[in-house]
Structure formats: structure tokens, C-alpha cells
Amino acid sequence: MNDQQPPSNPFMRILSSLGPAIITASVVLGPGSILSASKIGHTYAYQMIWVLVIAVIMMIAMTALSARLGIQLKGTICDELAERAGRPIAAATGIILFLIAACFQFSNNLGVLAAVEPFIDADSNISLYIILGMNAFIILALYGFKHLYGLIEKLMKLLVGVMMVAFAINLFQVRPDWVAAISGFIPSIPNLDSSTTSMKEVMTPIVALYATTFSVAGAFYQSYLVRQKGWTRANLKQGLIDSTLGISILGLITMMVLITAAKVLYQNPDITTLSSVSDVAKSLEPAFGKSAMIIFSLGIFAGAFSSFLVNAMIGGSILADGFGLGGYIDLKWPKLFTVLALLVGMGVAIYTKSMGVKPMGLIIFAQSLTVLGIPMLAIAMLWLATRPDMKGENAIPAWMKILGFIGLISSILLAIRTAYNLIAPLING
After folding, report:
1. For the chain, what are the domain ranges?
2. Whole-model pTM?
3. Residue 3 pLDDT class (50, 70, 90 cuts)
4. What is the topology classification, in CATH, of domain 10-428?
5. Could you tell me where the DSSP H helices lie in 117-186?
């Protein structure tokens, strides 16, 4: 039960509402979204900002829907799935989400390394020590602190604040074309030079920007976060403010990265490929000095570390809850499964760095799971939101359900595209 009275000052009331969605935003805003935004700026300048805006709107709707379910349902989403559809459905939801989180956890480890890569000796073993130390620190924190939700919320607010300041400094330092940036809010289709560019090459960075911003898995976990914060029906309006403001901050930070890249990287003959976020950071140094690279790398580190922590926590909590073992991070089984996700990510990251190869089998496996898992999560939320008992005071606002269904359709289309990209090489080969 949440007995805290909201502050009387409107501004302070909005700030006090921020919490669960900041944690959700922090897991979404990782190295993948930073790299995707940079690639869009590099390829299309300001032209595709409207795609980011649509993704943010869809993410706000799905996050707000999840928060509403977390407040209004008697149990967690997995509890309700187990009661209404059977424990196997809840368990399958937990397993799929855990496997996706565990498989991609290695990229979060590498994302943190990418932030410090410009400042360390690539041939030394220091990167391995950083990976080991970072994971050990998180595991110790999981078992060394009580009431982890409050601590994680404060840490994520700090890291999101660091990202905002770091990327804002870079943004104003590069002096972008603001008129062109504003025109990017108007939907337009990129020019396609059919002689040199395929439709797949045009769509890949655009789809990546949308997919890394509209994260159904992140939105799914919002329902757990509002329950851990202690929100009740009295906090329904707070939940909507939190979702709107928290995800808007996600969009604002991503937009700052995109606009910075549009100014620095677009049609820059010295920039040919962007294979990692460290490439983006290094690209700032020739024109704006080492300080710009350091500041940008600080933002990358904040984004990577926040994703690193919350991604593992999502996988561990939902897996435990899927089996009826509780879904709150302070409980025994969610902690144990979170540690398991951390260890999987750490092991693969160490293997990747020591062997100098990417674990393509694991990446393909994770992509295959995404084809099934992401639409399944969206279907679960919408199915619960449209149950016969969700009427009257329990009714989910129509706009949330409508945008939620649009989000489901987009997630299915993304899944089909991913499946095609996985199958096509096998057919053609």
C-alpha cells in the first residue's frame, strides 16, 4: 500500500511521479539504441526523426497500458496468466523473456566496454577485468542491499541524468541545423538510388531505430515496477504521467544522439562505417576535440550500464514469476535467476573478447526467440486488458488498447522480417 501523499507543488508532483518508467527507459536506452540513432543520423541526417517520434508514442502507450495492468490487476501479469490461462502459459512467457534477456546480456557487457574502449589498451586484459568487476559488483549489490527497488530507481535517475547532460553538451557543441531538425518531424520517404542501394539497405537502420525504441519487453516489466513502488488506484494518474514523461525522456535523449550524428557524421567522407558506439565517440574527436569524445563516452557508459543491470533483472524476475516463485527483485528466486542472466552474459562476453569472434549461434538463437517472444508479450498484455472483468472502474482507456493493438501489429511485422532474414540465407544458400 502506498500511503505517501503527493506534493502540493505541481512541478514537484511530476518529479515524484517519475520512477518506474525511468527504469524502463534506462533498459531501452542502451548501446543498441545509441548506435541505431547514430546510424540514422549518419545515413539520413535529420530526415527520419519522425520514425523516432512514432516509436516513442507507441512505447508510451504500451508502457502506460502495462502500468495500468500492474495497478489494477489482483496479481502480477504472470500470476494472472497462470490463473486465467494456465501455469504453462505463464512459465513459457517467463522462459522466453529470460532467454532473450540472457542471450543479449553479453552485448550489454560489451556496450560498457565500448564506452571505455577509446581510453584503454585494446591488446591488454583490462577489458576482461572490467567485465568481471562489473558483474561482481552487481551481484554483491543484489545481495548486499535491502529494498532494491528504491536503490535501483535512484541509480537509474542518476544514470539517465548523466546521459541527458552528456548528450546535451555534445548536441549544443556541434551546433546542428535546427530548421532541418524540425523539418525531420514531417514524415517523408528517404531517396532510393536503385542503382546502388537496395530497399533492405534503406530499411535496416530505420527498422533498427524503431525496434530499439519500441521495446515490448521493457514495457511488459513496467507492470512489475509500479507494484514494487507500491502504487494503487489512487496513483493511476501518476502512472500515466510517469509513463509519458519517462518514455519522452528516452525519446529526447535518443533524438539528441540522432541530431548530433546528423551534424557530425552525415556525408562525412572520413566516416565510412559505424560498427559500435565507440566508433561514434571516436568520430567526434577530429572536429571537436578529445573532450567531446570523453563526454559522449560518458553518456554511452551510463546507457550501457543501466541497460546491463535492468535487462538482467527483467529476465530473472519474469522467469521466477512465470514459475510462481515471485516476481519482485528482493525475493530469493528472482535474485538467483538475475545472477544466472548476469553470468551467462559475462561468460559469453569474456569468450567474445578473448577469442575475438562474435557468438553468431547465440545471436541467431536470440533473434529466433524474439520472433516468438515479443509478439507473445504484447498479446499477453492486450489479452488481459480486454478480459470481461476489465470494465467499469477496471476499464483500460480505449486509446491505450488501440495503440497497443497497433504496437502488436508492428511487433508481428518486425518478427516476420526477422524470421525472413534468418531463413532467407538458408533458402538461398
Report:
1. 10-428
2. 0.90
3. very low
4. Amino acid/polyamine transporter I (1.20.1740)
5. 126-144, 148-174, 178-183
